[in-house]
Structure formats: C-alpha cells, structure tokens
Here is the input.
Amino acid sequence: MINIYFRKRKRFLKSLILTAILSLLVFFFYAFFRFIAFRLFHFDLSSHDIAVLLLSVFLASIVYKPIDHFVLILFKDVIFRSHIHDHSMLTHLTRSLVSVLDQTELANLIVNTFGEALHLRMASVLVYDKSKDVCRILSAFGLKPSLWRNLELSTNSLLIELLRAQNMPLERERIVHSFSWQEANQLRHDFEQLHASCVIPLVFQDELIGSINLAPKAGSKSFTPQEVRSFFEFAREAATAFRNATLFDELRESNQELMKIQSGFLHSAQHSAIAQLATGIAHEIHNPLTIISGKAQILLLKRDKIAYDEQVEDVLKTIVKQTKRAADITRKLLMFSESHKSVRELVDFETVVNDTIALLSYQVSLDEIQVSKRFEHPIPKWFGNIVELREAFLNLFLNAVQAIGTKGTVEVTVCYRKQDDAIELRVSDSGLGISEADLVKVFHPFFTTRQGASGLGLFVTQQIIHGYHGSVRAESKFGAGATFIVELPCNTKSLPTDLEDESNPGVMQRPSKEQQSSGPDVLTKIVIP
Amino acid sequence: MKLLIVDDEAEICDFLKSFFEERNYEVKTASSGQGALDAVEQFKPHIVLLDIKMPGMDGIQVLGTIKKKSPRTKVIMVTALETRDKIEECLRLGADNYITKPLSLEYLENDVREKIEALTGSSAS
Here is the structure.
C-alpha cells in the first residue's frame, strides 16, 4: 500500500533538513560568541576555538528541541503535503472493504489503515446499534480498549443529531464556534468522549449508520479541508460496505434461528408423535391383555379346586407370561416417548452395544457383513437413559451397515478415557467413506446420500448425545470408509446426588423381588408417606 | 367389605367382579366417571379400583372428587398408562396405590386385603 521508495526518500530528506538546521544553529552560536567577545570585550576567541564550538553545540542541542517541533509541522504541511498519497491509499482501502462482510472486521480494517498508514493519533468507528438504540464504538486505533469498549453515545446526543441533520463531516474547532456556549459545551463533551477532533458520518440512503472519528497526526491540531473531503468521500463508500455487512449479519442470524427452530421442532414433533402412538397403543393393547391374562390367572387360582391336566396348566402359565411380555414392549415404547424427561439409571455399555447390534443381526446375516466388537475394560457404568442410548447407537450402526451395502466389515470399539472421564465409542465401516464436503453435513437434519432414507438418523443421534453434554463426530477419507466417534462424559462426581433423585421420586418404588417373582406383576408399588 | 370396580371395559369389570365375589367381597361396578361418583355416594365402598382412561370424566378427576368427598375411601388406580406425570399426579391427589395393566390378581388381592385390614384395624382402635 505504501510506496517504500517514496518513504525512504522522504525520510532522507527529513534528516537532511534537520542536519542542516542543526549545523546552522551551531554556526549561529559560534558566530554569536565570536562577535560578542570581539565587540564587547575586544577579545579574540580564535585561540579557544574548540571550547567555543563545544559550547555552541551544547546550546544548539538545547534550543533544537522546541524548534524540531515546528520543523516537523513545516515539513509535513508545507514541504510534503501527503494528501495525494493519502488519497490513493484510501481508494485502495475502499476496494478492499467491498470483500469484507463482517462489521467488526470492517471497522478494524478502517481504523488500522487510518491509524497506521496515515499516522493518525486516533481513529475509531462508531455504529448505530438498532437493537439497543445507541451508538457504540466497534473498533478503535490509538485508544486503550478500556476507554472505548463500553463507550456508548445516545442517539439524541447533539453530535449524533448534527451528523444526522447535516450529513457533513464535523470538525470540533470549526463547529463549536457556531453554537451557543451551552450547545458548544455539549458538543465539546461529545467530541471528548470520542477522543476525536473530526467526525465523518457514515450515511447510506439518507440513513445515518455510524461515523468514523479521527484525531489528526501528532503535532497538528486539525485536518486540511482536502483531507476532510477525501475522508468524507471514503466514508460514503464505507457506509455501503457497512450496510452490506449489517444485512449479511441479520441474514446469518435469522438463518441460524431458523435452523435452531427447525431442529427443535423436529425433535418435539418426533417425540410427540411417538408419545401419542405409545399412549394409544398402551391403552388399546393393555386392556385386552388384562382380560386375557386375568382370566387365565383366575383359572390358575382355581387349580386347587379343579384338577387340571398338566398341559392345561402349562398353557395358562404361558398365557400369563406372554401377555406380560407383550405389555413390556408397549411399556418400553411409552418410556421412549417420554425419555427426554424419563428415568436415568446406571447403564452397562457392553450390554447396550450387544443388544443394539443384536437388532441388526437379521439384516447383517442376509448380507456378507462382519460385525466385530471390542471392549477395552474396565468400562465404568454410565448414568443415563438406556432407551436413548440404544436409539443413538442403533442409528450409528444402521448408518455403518447401510454405508457398506452388501459386503464389508463394521468395527465397534468401546473404551474409557480416564483423563477426561469419558466413555468413547467408535464405529468404523469399510464403506465408500464420506467426501470432505459432506463430512460437515452428515449431522444436519434431512441430509442423506441414500435414496429413500429420511436423513434423520444421525441427527437424532447427535441430539441425544448433546443432551448428555457429549460429542459425536465423523472422520473419513473418501474411498476408505468412515469412523463415527461418540464421547460421553461419565460425570461420576455428580452421580450420587443424581441417583438419589431418581431412586427416590417422592413415594414410588420398584417392586421387591418377591413381588416380581409372583407372575405378571405391577411395576409400581406405592408407599404412603 | 365393599369394593367398587370402575373400568370402561366391561369384560375387565366382569372378571374382576367374579374374582372378588368368590373371595367374599361385596362388589359393584361402574363404567364411567359419573357412574363411579354416584356409586360411591350410594354404595359407600371401602375400596375403589379406578381406571384412568375413560370417556367423559377421567379417573384422575374422579379420584380428586372421591378423596374430597370421602377421604376414608381407599382408591387404587388401575391403569394401562404409566407415565411418570400421571403417577405423580395421582399420588398428589391422594391415590393409595397405582397398579398397571395387565394385572397380577395375586398382587391386587393382597393389596386390597392390606387396605381392608388397615381400615378395620384403624376403626377398631
């Protein structure tokens, strides 16, 4: 951005001028001493030349400091008017703004370029925050973060109102004179709050969206009119970029919100559908089961009075046993439907994995798919809902089996990672793998590469795992299979209290062993407190 | 001892009725919530076996009314629904037990007998 050659030449010229001035000063002092000594004391100092020269150098160096300041101003403002160069820098900046779509990034780019390339003492960007109805600093150069982080300017402060009304750059030194002392004071206060001496409005289609606030380079009090003009031109372009960034932000936010609502809706829709189904089934099936089982039980209880054939007694017992089994299935369904708030218990991972794989055995046996399991003991028991865990794993296993097609291997490994107190489950398949582009999308709802699939399985798995503050991710090389890794924290520390909550739900308890052994049993026994 | 069985499924009422009658209970049945409340008033049962899901007034409302009008009557909920919310609601309303279908007649009979003993024991003392 900065022409280095140009800069070097400038620096050389600057040191040349300074050396010349310094030499001039020394010469001046030297001549002065000689002149005074000769004229007033009729004394020739030529024999003490060195001493006089040293004294002159000493005096020159003392006087030099204040002169240096003016020289710099002279140098910058008169000899080297740098606004032509500034202008090209701003044009360049304008071009790079177009590609930035983040407000803060935009603000950073602007303040840093203004600050560093134009050597300004301070540069900051103020934007109007619609949600809070205030103007706040987005980024600043040359100010401590503590000074601007919480800096807010009310929208009805005089400075903002002026910017809005005039749509022109405001310079403190010029503007305050045209106001009554009260208003001038207020304006001065606003300028001081921003630590700025010049405020350039950012206006897009007659709407004030913010401002660029500047303090000139060290040594000068204000900007030249040309500078202010070029800043204002730049601000017009910058305003468009800011507007775009705001729109982009809004779009992104609403998009995220939409996705959140969508996933929440899916989850609840899925649950409520299952809940309705389960409640209906429980009622419709349990009543006939009650009648079948009840009548069989009545007959069985009469066996003392009526001597049954042994076979009949067997049949009656089977009826009672099998009706209980059928009822258990619907009961589990009901439990799944309310699993988001339902019972948590200590779960053995090995059992869950084995049970879940067993569900797939039929499909696997049809094709040539090898499923291997590996458990790296010891694996502690995990506290959670077994139905949810089963559902989460089933989707992963199904996904692996379906990825393979007809021939290949699925490998399931479970281990406990002591360092982070988490159980890790890995499911690897020898399928085609997932392309890099798809890898980020596999957990999105409705994402699927298979025809006829719902694209919900992995999404549901992710929802369940996240419910336990765990994580699930996919690793894959296209063409070399995929691995899904689930990490579930054990939270053994919080276990005792959790367990107590669950096992003591006020007044309900599980039936004792004797009750369980006495046939198709009630599941709950109430203890009156 | 008087027992009221409330279930919208007639067959369930019937076999439970014959089961308890064989064990010398005086049994009446009702097939709706309103019917149950009427029966409680006229028949004054010691124990009510109450189904939850019924057309019209459901078992939970009936339970609330019974416990309000005659708190001494023991109510055992007999239901196909076993959600945690329902169980908790019944207990809060004062249900004396919560049994899920299909029933174990042995367990049910024991429970009914316990409740009766508690009633007669407390009235004797």
Notes: The CA atoms of residues 19 and 105 of chain B lie 9 Å apart. Chain B has a mean pLDDT of 88. The first strand of chain B starts at residue 2 and ends at 6.
